[in-house]
Design brief:
This protein has one domain: Histidine kinase-like ATPase, C-terminal domain (Heat Shock Protein 90, 2-Layer Sandwich), CATH 3.30.565. It has helices at residues 13-26, 31-52, 93-110, and strands spanning 2-6, 60-67, 70-78, 115-119, 122-130. The chain contains three helices and five strands.
Length: 136
């Protein structure tokens, strides 16, 4: 398992993109899948950041795990502590919810098996790609 944590700030999305591409190359993913992965994970990380709220104190976490010929990435973004327990629609209003839905749609277009969960604790995206060198 490989993981990276970074502050919930837009400036750090490029770090997540570089990390995911390096891990995917290490496990033998196809070049086209790597490019799609960079786009999808950029969207997932951006969504996690936008849902974290201003001055979020908990980082966004990106984890990559090889298993059974697949490489799975999970993005975990946390809510700002004082916002926990409120309805998801309370975070940034309708515009933020719309942006989150658009991100989920883009990710699903690139990876139909992607999973998305939006909870009061945070947003979670799971994206898997075939990997030639992933352990069984």
């Amino acid at each position: 398992m490989f993981s990276i944590e970074f502050p919930a700030e837009a400036d750090h999305v490029s770090t997540a993109r570089i990390f995911s591409a390096a891990v995917a190359r290490h496990f033998g993913c196809d070049a086209a899948d790597i490019e799609d992965l960079k786009i999808a994970l950029s969207e997932a990380c951006s969504s996690a950041i936008s849902h974290a709220g201003r001055s979020a104190q908990q980082p966004v976490r990106l984890v990559a795990s090889p298993s059974g010929g697949m490489l799975t990435f999970v993005v975990n973004g946390h809510r700002k502590r004082e916002l926990e327990g409120r309805a998801a629609s309370d975070f940034g209003g309708e515009t933020n919810q719309h942006m989150l839905a658009l991100s989920a749609e883009l990710i699903a277009a690139l990876f139909p098996d992607a999973e998305f969960l939006d909870t009061p604790e945070g947003t979670f995206f799971r994206i898997s790609v075939p990997a030639n060198n992933a352990t069984p």
